[in-house]
Amino acid sequence: MFVDRALVVLMTLGAFWSPLRAADRSVSCLLHSACVLPCPFDPGPEVVIHWLNPPESSSPVHSFYHSKDQLGHQQQRYRGRTSLFKELISKGNASLRITGVELADSGRYKCYTSTTKGNNEDFFSVEVQAPVLEVSLQQEEERLLCRSENIYPRPDVNWTPSPEPLEKPLTDITSSETGLFSVLSSVPLPQRPLEEYSCNISTAYSWRSATYRRNPEIRLSDSLTVPCVEVTAPVKSLVWKFNHKKTIYNKTGTNQTFSDFWSDFVDGLTKSNGLALKDLTLDQLDCSPVRSPLTLRHSL
């Protein structure tokens, strides 16, 4: 009798699915990482679990009954990538773990659970993201070029301060064969003294920024503070670089380091994460950020 119930449930899940439902639970998964879809249920004897994507599919993402996994009808692309928390099933936990998350794993999932006490359905809206990890900002001739790649979903790009109408950014957002997006955006190099530009690239899940500033000439032994682009949320990581390549300062969480070459000339950071320089010599000025572009990368 138990065998019949399990098989009938598997074959008729799609046929009895109804569009009338409670709001889906939203789950965000990182590309190429592991992701867990939580599904609690009222525990009882003769547990049957079916995960489906889409909900009306006749081939499961993962199935469990007869006290073990049943993967004979599993969708091909999920093979070897799904698992349940076996030790927690008897306690009412049917959560699904997916490894090596792919963009194709996005979509609507159904978690069907059944015991002798009854059955239940939960629905999930899964979105896969590849966050903005790096923004490169470089000067090429008379333009500033901003680049980033391997992003999902499609990112937004903006420059601050906003260029004048006649200096509208040239932005190209392309999608590769893998579905990931790359960004190339440029604006004319600012000409006014102390002018600065920040290139900001964001999705609904992530944000990165790089800042270019042309600094004034200073006298020997003068101090100089290079301001940081203002952000309203706490900064988790912060990197100051010289000429886009050499790291001056790096902060991740509570850990912070200064490069040996710059340590004697850095007076620290301001409360707004600006870079304070001191005691600059002729040798230092020859390769200091007052003569060359200084870039900033930070994340929330």
TrEMBL record:
PROSITE patterns found in the cross-reference section: IG_LIKE (PS50835)
Keywords from the UniProt entry: Cell membrane, Disulfide bond, Glycoprotein, Immunoglobulin domain, Membrane, Receptor, Signal, Transmembrane, Transmembrane helix
UniProt GO BP: cell surface receptor signaling pathway; cellular response to lipopolysaccharide; immune response; negative regulation of T cell proliferation; positive regulation of T cell proliferation; T cell costimulation
Protein topology in the membrane: Single-pass type I membrane protein
Any single Gene Ontology cellular-component annotation: external side of plasma membrane
Subcellular locations according to the entry: Cell membrane
Domain Ig-like: 26-127, 131-219
Signal peptide per UniProt: 1-22
Protein name: Ig-like domain-containing protein
Species whose genome carries this gene: Neogobius melanostomus (round goby)
